[in-house]
Amino acid sequence: MKIPLYQGTTERIMIAGIPRNIAIIGGTLGAAIVLGFQTLWAIPFIFIGYVILVLLYKKDSYFIEILLDHIKEDDYLFP
Q1: What pLDDT was estimated at residue 8?
Q2: Is residue 38 in a domain?
């Protein structure tokens, strides 16, 4: 017995090689920096950050989720 399974149900929703929510946040922050400060010199730095995220995501597809979980974790060892 076979059941048709669409590729979109098993894979993450991606925009330009990274997960959709990370791409939206990065694009919004990049646009805010460039348009808010009116500095075009920030565009190469934003692009380099995007390329680094794509390379890290290709190497380990769970890198961003693990990083976000690590940031949210409030388990600290106090002396």
Answers
A1: 66
A2: yes
